[in-house]
């Protein structure tokens, strides 16, 4: 992980305990959607 990624992870770790359950669920959904999208892009990049 580079420094920028570490900074982002630290800020998220500090913010999550302060969030309500709805916001935590929204954040989780966003992260899962991005991860899924990235997983689907990788095979295409390797094939092309």
What does this structure look like?
The chain is mostly helical and 48 residues long. It has a domain at 19-48. 83% of the residues lie in helices and 0% in strands. It has two helices and no strands. It has helices at 3-15, 21-47. The model has no long low-confidence stretch (mean pLDDT 92).
Structural class: mainly alpha
Q: Which H/E pattern describes the elements? A: HH
Kindly provide the radius of gyration, computed on alpha-carbon positions and rounded to a whole number of angstroms: 14 Å
Percentage of residues assigned to helices? over 70%
Question: How is the topology of this model organized?
Answer:
Blueprint: H1 3-15, H2 21-47
Brief characterization of the structure:
It is built from two helices and no strands.
What are the defining features of this structure?
48 residues, mainly alpha
